[in-house]
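B., you asked whether I could sanity-check this one before it goes into the benchmark set. Here's the sequence:
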Amino acid sequence: MARTPKARLKVLEAAGRVVRERGAAALAFEEVVAASGVTRGGITYHFPTKEDLLRALVERDRDQWAATLASHRAACECPRSADVVAYVRAATDHDEDHRRFVSGMLSAVAHDPDLLSSCRDFYRAQVMAAHWSEAELRRLMVRLAADGLFWMETFGFLELPPAVRRRYVELLESLAAESFGAGETAPPPAARRPAAGAPRPNTRKTAAKGKGRST
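And here's what the prediction gave me:
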């Protein structure tokens, strides 16, 4: 009898907890059996190897990031800057589960950098510009500043007072809005094209939902 997608979801949720709590090195099938209640055979039906399970976890996190971006984009007041402002808000969200997952995955990614291939494609699709005008470079600077805050806080290098952090994020949002000139609008992510010579996104891998913490 075919196993239902519910078992696959249970495995992914349990494996994600293991990674968040003990890191990817602890992600043995026996641990996932204990955490999920799914038999080893049920796990390997969906994920024949640990690498398959790790890759599915990365892609699930990528899809959750995409959903977060879409939610923030829909809530933005200014359509022109919504894409960049949504990126800032998603990158600077206080999502401790996501931070712990990213930290827990570091050892696996160091061992197999290809685990992040779909996330790289997705990220490039978000940030690549058509012509790299000064305005586009300013928007890239805003995104990178938001990414920097995420990584500095994830590694414990920086802990801003809440009021200061709030001002920093507000400043990034203001800079994002200011990077659009009069009458200028941001193209939707799918319409962007990489600059000449830049790697092109793999659209077959990035089609899922549209995710878009890495990690």
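One thing to flag: Residues 50-75 form the longest helix (26 residues). Otherwise nothing jumped out at me.
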